[in-house]
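Help!! Second protein's tokens look totally different from the first
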Amino acid sequence: MAEVNHSTVSEFVLLGLCDSWELQIFFFISMLVLYLITVLGNIFIVILVITDSHLHSPMYFLLSNLSFVDLWLSLVTTPKMITDLLKENKTISFGGCMCQILFVHFAGGCEMTLLVTMAYDRYVAICKPLHYTTIMSQRRCIWLVTISWTIGFIHSISQLIVIVELPFCGPRVVNSFFCDIPLVIELACIDSHSLGILMNSDSGILTLTCFIVLLVSYSYILLTVCHYSKDGASKALSTCTAHITVVVLFFGPCIFIYVWPLNITSVDKFLAVFFSVITPLLNPAIYTLRNKEMKVSLRRFKNLYVSSRWNL
């Protein structure tokens, strides 16, 4: 007997962040402001790295790629969430839901591996400074970024292939503001418990592996520098602080979503907001405010472009 396609659901209903209209207005204003800052901040970092020759180094090449991925991550879910805050009926098509799953995990996988690449760059710069330009050549940087994008694509497409073939014929309410694998799998017309564990394990293994590698890398960097120079340790700590902060704030929500799920709706929504809205804001906030070279570059940009235009 030929198999019957049970995927009759054409759209899903998103419950959003809350039911209170007053809170939705508050969230709309605050999320819109954060979104605009995120988009403008990350675009500005990319433009600054491209236009300022002083930032044409492996570290800032990787940072600009990270900003681009963060920009992409914010574009996948946040505009839909913001517009839905003003709607009574929040729906998303089946195709739109699958696209969210694909691009969220694509961007998330890219960002995780890019953070590992940035840790490797800091390791070479601090522990092997004499060989830095040889090891972190332009060609190798491009290869490392390509590998990061490839890992993100393989991770996301492997998840989507499984999800899109599931039969959806009944429940269609997603208790969040965007489609994610754990919530969508629960709506399938099959016993999805084992499949849910398997899919979460896929994301969890990537998350936990990158997180452990990053912790070991930065610990090794600091221990190595402390062993040879106390003054160098202070400088290395200052250099790595921004990276470590981003790592902890980015991987924290991912661990509690995929590795150690709490299954508390309010907490899950908070973590989802943190991952999709706050995390993409970390690059322009942390890297520009704490990085001395970025501050100097900002002043150069202001003097070169803003002041000259003002004089005209």
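Here's the second one for comparison:
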Amino acid sequence: MSSLSRRHVLTTAAGAGAALALGGLTTDAAAAAAAAGRGGGAEETRTLDELYRAALAEGGKLVVYAGGDTPTQQDGTKAAFLERFPDIDLTIVVDYSKYHDVRIDNQLATGTLVPDVVQLQTLQDFVRWKEQGELLPYRPAGFGTVHDGFKDPQGAWVGIAVIAFSFLYGTAAAGSGAPRTPLDLLDPKWKGRIASSYPHDDDAVLYLYALYAQTYGWEWVAKLAAQDVRFARGSNSPGDAVGSGLKPIGIGGAGAPLGTGPVRWVLPAKAPFMAWGQRAAILRQAARPAAAKLYLNWQLSAAQQRTSFNGWSVRTDIAPPAGQQPVWEYPNAHLDGFPRFMADRAAVERWKQTFALYFGEVTGAPTPGVLGLHPGA
């Protein structure tokens, strides 16, 4: 996935030297980039109620751009937020992260910024936006408890949720012969019975497939391609296909390791899966920074982190359920590998085009819909 390039700069020390080192930037942009390098100050000490009052005094409105697959995917988040803060006019716009990031770039370039908060899986964008001075350094309450791999040291961004992708199966349809490792997916009995999200349409699914290819070789990929897999857009599609009984096996979706429902998400003992902290940040030019701060503090609050659908928190002081370890204790989750993978955009493109040769081109309408340049305005 490519993005529109604005001014690429290096973060430097504050002061006049920074303005000179950031040649080509406006004075305001240079100052913002220098401020980003200094960090966001002390961790927030105001209570949620105090932050709520500040957000109401600001106007009581908030717009969040959230990476996701369906228009309703953040409805639960919105309902929980409004239950706690009923007088906030909250809009959460869900779209593929690869569209939200370039949408934000274009809005910044044209002076038409809509969102206050952005939360995406395109991890590399937060590094770039920080360098460009586009993020507001800020440390919400609880920032110090967040796992080091899930936050920027200067507070430019912070992970608000752990998401993990693997494969899954329907307990009734798969029976006692359910797959336990990616190698089991090649069993002839699963031919025509597997659903997957396109790896060359979603970078997180792409990384999962890249891990499979690196672990088991291109022979594994070729054999999977011969399994007559039903590919679809959206990482929700494998779970939907399995949950509806359309297919017994799904690849490239999220789930809960200790789930007991009719669809089981596989946390492999040694085989690779992938996980990351979904990054969130306040945009420096946000129209409603007080409401944005309220949102990040609420997301990182212990009460909210304990509601995680998969049992994992980004905070080190919130333990997962019994029988499940913190996600950073699973070496086969490749937490450090995903940010590196996302940063190498040339390699990402090569992976995408190679998988297209095996699985065919991506087809189908985007599952969140076609949202244009300024959704949520």
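Reply: Different proteins will give different token patterns, so don't panic. The first strand starts at residue 61 and ends at 67.
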